[in-house]
## 1
Amino acid sequence: MFEAAYELYYWPEIQGRGEFVRLALEEAGADYVDVGRVPRSKGGGVEAILRVLRGELGPHLPFAPPVLRAGDVVVAQTAAILHFLGPPLGLVPRDPAERLWAHQLQLTVTDLVAEVHDTHHPISTDLYYAQQKPEARRRTRHFLSERVPKFLGYFERVIDLAGGRWVLGKRLSYVDLSLFQVMEGLAYAFPRTMDALAPRFPRMRAVSEGVRQRPRIASYLASERRIPFNTEGVFRHYPELEPGGPAARRGRRRPARRNGKPASSQA
């Protein structure tokens, strides 16, 4: 048992889905402990997370991290955690309808994040990326050309209709923090694509920059608490997946050697 008001259980070496929760806790200046990053000798580490997944915290068994404990309450799933944290952290309005709207938007963020993950693991999470490269290339091509503009365009319109600086209007919410993470992650994973797309979504860019400049978030981003993006998390940078990447350039020369028929990429 830790003394902090909130215990977050998530993998210690990646941002992943846990980062959406971390950002909310950091913005609110909440008293929390990132249990996975606590030394095993002090009751933390990966083993602590595995104990939670085995049911150590009670009968409400989580399927996977992130998991949040607040006193007697244990909740998993990123959107559910943020729905729970929003009111006590002051990151949603008091109106129940607005809280439900924020939850709906966060669930849409969850859909987007799931599609990001599937760009590098389109077949199975039990296979390595290298074992599904051809499928990943095809999936990413459609994701970048069709799904990213659709998702970002949706949120762009939501912000416009809200009539303020943030996604809910005049007040920052946990959804804004999540949109910041999405924009950061997409820029890391697909830099060429995002450089080209960014001018089309000025409101999304404004929300992202607004979040970045908030004092507590700026302090967090500059600290060791912010885990760098890497190729183990949800947002992964594999240059060959983007249009114009190494594999794409090689691929454009292959059909001429095979009578005009596309050749399969090698994993």
## 2
Amino acid sequence: MNNIFKTINFFFHNNFRLKYKTEIPQDRSNDLKEIKNTKKYKIKIITSYDDKFKNIGDITSKTFEKYAEKYDYVFENVKMPKFDRPYAWNKIKILLDEIKKNNFEYLLWVDADSYFNIYEKNISEIIDEKKEIYMAKHYCEVHKGTKYKNTKLTILRINSGVILLKSSNYNFNFLTKVWNNKKFINHQWWEQAAIMDIIGLRAEINHNLNDNIGNNILDKIKFLSGRWNSIPSRLDISMEKHNPIIIHMAGMKNDDRERYLKKNLLN
């Protein structure tokens, strides 16, 4: 039986990947035991939510505050700006404003439907000063499907719900490009789709599986362990990680989020 699985794995590795370039280039150093950065950085943790999200955000933001206190960071729940765009875009405007202020070396944005699950891992430890942008990626099912029975195609998709940014001119220019990428204002993934377009990972937004090889911006991105952005999932292709640092309740209805928090965080 093991030989059968090895043969199947060899077939897909050497045939499917030649046809579709669908993988985000991997930083091989992440596969090894990562060297911890012991340097101290000025980091600000930021979230924002409106009154409709208050029942959830008031709970999750307490974990952001607790994490900030543990590592001597600053936390702010920024009042949600009012723009003629879906609310998810506000993170881009808020982060641009924070970079302008130039009060911190790094900015950690955490969506309000996320919370810290454990507090033992310091975000500073994963910083590589050659990188500008830090976020997680997940294997997600490609809806295009495959002709092979009992087989699912997957693709690596970034997730901007948790994102660490160096407060730099590079990122100010990067976020400005994201903000100005107006064709994605009403896309189902909003600013995340704009980011995917700009960094050249377009397969899921233009339905061309070959258009996912990325560009030179990827050289400035460090992809974090999924533990920093673990998404609870009942799907066959799970985005949930063991012992997650941050749990991100992405894709849930608010009632389900409240029940999840009551069961997993408040008890």
## 3
Amino acid sequence: MQIFVKIPSGEVVSLEVEPSSTIAEVKQKLSEKRKQDQIDKEREKEKGNDKEKEKEKDKEKEKVEVSSPSSPSRKRSIISEKDDECLIFDGKKLAETSTVEECNISQNSTVNLHIAPSSQKKSKCSFGDCVRRPVLIVGNCKFCTKDFCAQHRLPETHACPNMKDCRQQSFDRNKAKLMKEKCVAAKV
């Protein structure tokens, strides 16, 4: 039978479960489904980026007969399984060992996923032992996708593992700009 699980972000996930399935099994299926959905979204995003890159490469080849290397592939963290997640149906917390049938969950019912406050992400800098709060917008490193305080926000200061990609991207950007402004002597 099909049930729906509403997660805290407001998204509704549909799951195919058996009446004899335990709540722990439902949570496992939900976790797997969320991981797969996130992977699929990342793949679609990468495909879109690849198409844009190909168009940009074609344009650059027409202008300057030089191909540019591809930009870094960024991997985002995948949703991890949390022990403090619980499912709530009709205002009651569902026990891990009880079955879907015992909880009176019927076809097309909606169950809410609740995440305990202790498991929610703490806001602190991702650099070593730094306990400062990350800076909004500019504190997110686009190369390693971590959040940093004002002191560690630059890739050089937090020893970004993708520093090579960062340098290559800057090099390519500068190269394209210089080639665009290149002076060509007229042939006589």
